């Protein structure tokens, strides 16, 4: 397994373990996260503080769990396909949506992440989008 893949897998393991601090520490200090325009927490978040802010916004709207199922490695990108289980606070009705994560990574340093999702309109409404 490449150094880049090890870094991405370690970040997901920290997230799965519920260790937000370990997850954030795995990111480069100048990390940039771009969240889908479809969700209320959309936007660009920079650095460790920005990532904490993003997770805080997610938590305001929903409980969220992500389960990666496929990892596709390129030179300086790793694409992760998986399912996000979202439970909107407004309804409590769980929904699972397909999510695509595109990581920018170099020499094992997690530099950036873009998130894309395919969510039905009723779920987006329940999230407050």
Give an overview of the whole structure.
With 129 residues, the protein is of the alpha+beta class. Helix content is 33%, strand content 46%. It has 4 helices and 6 strands. A 6-stranded mixed sheet has the order 2-1-6-5-4-3. A hairpin with a 3-residue loop joins β3 (62-73) and β4. The chain is globular.
What's a quick, concise take on this entry?
It is globular, with a radius of gyration of 14 Å.
Quickly count the helices: 4
Question: What class would the helix/strand composition place it in?
Answer: alpha+beta
> Rough shape?
globular
Strand content of the residues, in percent? over 45%
Helix proportion range: 25-40%
Q: Radius of gyration, Cα only, in angstroms?
A: 14 Å
Strand elements, count: 6
Order of helices and strands: HHEEHEEEEH
| Major sheet attributes | 6 strands, mixed
Strand arrangement, major sheet: 2-1-6-5-4-3
Low-confidence stretches: none
Termini gap = 38 Å
SSE blueprint:
Elements: H1 3-16, H2 20-25, E1 27-35, E2 43-46, H3 47-61, E3 62-73, E4 77-88, E5 95-106, E6 109-118, H4 121-127
Parallel strand pairs: 1-6
Antiparallel strand pairs: 1-2, 3-4, 4-5, 5-6
Summary tags:
single chain; 129 residues; alpha+beta; 46% strand
